[in-house]
Amino acid sequence: MTLWMAFTAMFILFVAFFILYLGMTAGRIDRLHRRIDVALISLDSHLLRRSGVTLELASSGFLDPASSVLISEAAHAARLSTDLSSTQRDRAESELTSAINAVLDLEEVELIQSEVGGREILEECAAASRRVELSRRFLNDAVRACVQLRQQRSARWFHLAGHTPLPQTREIYDHVDISDRN
User: Fold this and answer.
1) In whole angstroms, what is the distance from residue 63 CA to residue 103 CA?
2) What is the radius of gyration, based on Cα positions, of the chain?
3) Which of 22, 53, 126, 169 could serve as 179's disulfide partner, Cβ 3.0–4.6 Å?
4) What global pTM score does this model have?
5) Handedness of CA 24, 26, 31, 32 (dihedral sign)
């Protein structure tokens, strides 16, 4: 009789630890999804900030008219892409980055820095671009961690993520090297 009770107690203890493990895993998945939501909001705000600073640079008079038009059109398209799908928005943001890099070569950066207020607007543009890079990195790291956790057998078999769609990384060409030229 005592052997049977010992076996039953061990089985109950095993089940309790397994349920605790499942609960902790489900909680971790939930926290990662919340972290992804916060990172997406942060990335969106930094993308809007970068396009605003870029529009400010385009209208500042520091650039030649063709460069101003190129940057302002790309920034305007990036601002209007907030209602589009994430792939279309990523494409518009990547085009803005390409436009910034195309217009702000070394000579242009030196010319703008020599103007009154030019250094400040370039620093603001570089800072906004750096924040976009960091926000996207944080988001993609959280997405990778969440996907990796959701691919575990226990998470799949017991549907610990519920019906939440699998998060996707954001692939944006976002490296603006203004600060490298200062």
Assistant:
1) 9
2) 24
3) 126
4) 0.88
5) positive
Q: Which residue has the tokens 């790309």?
A: 74
Q: What is the pLDDT of residues 118-162, one digit of tens each?
A: 899 999 999 999 999 999 999 999 999 999 999 999 999 999 998
In angstroms, the CA 170 to CA 69 distance is 27
90: nearest Cα among 176, 175, 177, 170: 170
Token code pair at residue 165:
């769609």
Please state the separation of Cα 116 from the chain's center in Å: 33
pLDDT of 1 above 70: no
Give the C-alpha separation, 82 to 75, whole Å: 12
Is residue 174 within 8 Å of residue 133, measured between CB atoms? yes
Q: In sequence order, what DSSP letters do the residues of the chain get, joined into one string?
A: -HHHHHHHHHHHHHHHHHHHHHHHHHHHHHHHHHHHHHHHHHHHHHHHHHHHHHHHHHHSS-S-HHHHHHHHHHHHHHHHGGGS-HHHHHHHHHHHHHHHHHH--HHHHHHHHHSTTHHHHHHHHHHHHHHHHHHHHHHHHHHHHHHHHHTSHHHHHTTTTTTPPPP----------HHHH-
